[in-house]
User: What shape does this take?
Amino acid sequence: MLKRMIHFLLLPCSQTTLFIEMQQSGQLSSIQKLRLKLHLAICKLCKAYQKKSIRMDKVLRHHVPQEHAIVFNPIDLERLKNKIREKIKNN
Amino acid sequence: MVDHVHIFDQWVEEYSGALLKRALYLLSDRQDAEDLVQDVFIAAFASYPNFKGNSAPLTWLMHILKNKAADFYRKKYRNSNPISLDYFFDETGSWRDTAMIRDWSSEDLNLMDDAEFMAIMEHCLEDLPPKWKIPVKLYYLEEKKATVVCQEMGISSTNLWKILQRSRLQLRVCLENNWFNTQN
Assistant: This one.
C-alpha cells in the first residue's frame, strides 16, 4: 500500500519510463533525477525495464548508423537516375 | 549552367544509390523513398549556388535528404492521434504486465555480433508505425542529439521523448516475444 502511494505521489511507472528515456539522453533536471532515483529504489519492475532499455539503446546506437545491406536491382537504380536527370533538365 | 548540369550528372550517377538507401531506411517505402531522392536532387540543383564546397557533396545531399524526410513526416503525421500508453499502464500509471521482471540473458557483445538477433531487432524496429519509427531512426542517425532531431522534424522535445518511450516499450515486447523468451 505504501509502495502504491509512493508510486502515485512521487512518480507513476508510466512517467518513470519517460524519465528513463530522457536520462539516456542526458536531459533530466536534478529534481527529475532524484525522483527517478527514488522510484527506481522501490520499483523492481521499472528497475528491470531500465536495464532492458539501456541495452536496447546500446544495440540501436550500434546498429542504426550502419544501415542494413539493402541491395538494389541495378536496372531499378538506372531507371531512377534517368528520371532524376530528366527532371533536372526540365527544371 | 552547362557545368552545373554536368556536375549534377555525375552526382546523380555517384550518389543516387547511397541516397536511396538512406531514404528507404528512413521511410520504409520504396515509392516514397524514390520520390524523396528525386526531390533531393531537384532542391540541390536549385540551391547549388549555396553549396560552397566546404563539405563533401554527399554530406550536403544527405543534409537536404534529412530536411526533405522531415517535411514528408510533418505533412503526413501532423494531425495524428496523441500517443497512448494504456496498453502498458493502468489508470494509476502502474505496469499492467509484470513479465518485465524476467531478466534478459547473454552479453551485449554477443548480441551485436549475432546476425540472427540483429535481424530480429531490425524486424521489431520496422514493425513500429511510421509516425514513430521515422523519429526513432533519425534520433540514432543523429547520434541521439535530441534538439537536432526536434528541429529537423518540427516536433516538440516532449513529443520526441514520448515517441521514444512508446517505441521502446513496444520494442521490448517484440524482442522478448521473438528472441529472449524463445532462447533457453
The first helix of chain B runs from residue 2 to 27. Chain B touches chain A through 56 residues (CB under 8 Å).
